[in-house]
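INFO batch 0412 | record 1 of 1 | parsing
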Amino acid sequence: MSPVTRGILFMVAATFVFAVMDGLSRLAAERYSVILVVMVRYWFFAGFVLVRAMTAPGGIRAAARTHHPFLQVLRGVMLAAEVVVTVTAFVWLGLIETHALFASYPLMIAALSGPVLGERVGWRRWAGIAVGFAGVLIILDPGNRVLEPQALIALAGALIFALYGLITRKVSARDSATTSLFWTGAAGAVAMTLIGAFYWQPIAPADWPLIGVLSVAGLAGHWLLIKSYGAAPASTVQPFAFLQLVFIAGIGVTFFSEDLRPGVVIGAGLVVAAGLFTLSRSRQVSAPKSPPAG
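INFO prediction complete | emitting C-alpha cells
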C-alpha cells in the first residue's frame, strides 16, 4: 500500500471516529453540563499531549518552548471555547445542521486571511466564498423558517475555529507542530478545569463508560490525523475530511432521529464545494513559482 493511500485511509478513519465522538458528545451533553463533558475530554487530551511530549526528542521542555507564548495560550483557550460552543449546538440544533453550518469555517478563514494575516484574496476566492455563504443561507432557509438562535451558535463555533486556524497559521511560521499540539492540550485543559470546577456534578457509574469511550475516541481521532498527515501531503488528504458530514448524517438520522432536509444537503454541498475550491486556490497562490526556462 502506498503512503498516499495509507494517508487517505487514516483521514477517512479519523473523520469516522470524530463523527462517533460528536454523537457521543451530544449524548453525554444531554445528561450533564456541556462544560463538564468538555473538561473531562480535555483531561484525556492533555494526558495524550503530555505523553507525546515526554517521548519526543527534548521532552516536555522542548515541546513547550515557543516564540509566541501569548498566541499559543490564546489559540488553546479558543479551541476549548469552540468545542463548548459546538457541543452546545449539537444539543440545541442537532448534529446534521450544526456540522453543515460548521463546514463554512474554511470560507471564514479565507475571508479573514486578508485583514488578519495581510494575505491577498483574489476575486476567484471571493467568488468561492460568496457561493459558500449562499449555501449557508440555503441551510438556514430564512424564507420558510424563523432564523433560529441555535444556528447562530453553530456559526459562532465555526467563526471561533476559523480564528483558531488563522492564529495557528501565524504561530506555525516559527513554532513546530509538536509545540502547537502541546499548548493546545495544556492551555485548553487548564482553562476548562478552572471553569469546569464550578460545574462539577457526580457522574453516575453507568455513564463512565460513555465518558471514557467519548474521550478515547477523541484521542484516537487525533492519533489518526497525525498518522494521516505523516503519511501523505495535507493537500491530498484534507479534502477527505469532509466525509465527516456523511458519517454525521448517518449518525444523526439513525440514532437521534434527525431530519435530513433537502435544503441542508444542497446547502452543505455548496459549502463543501466552495471550501475545496478556496483551499485549492489558496495553495495555488502560495505555491512557489517555477523559474523561467533558460
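INFO post-check: The longest helix spans residues 3-29.
INFO record closed
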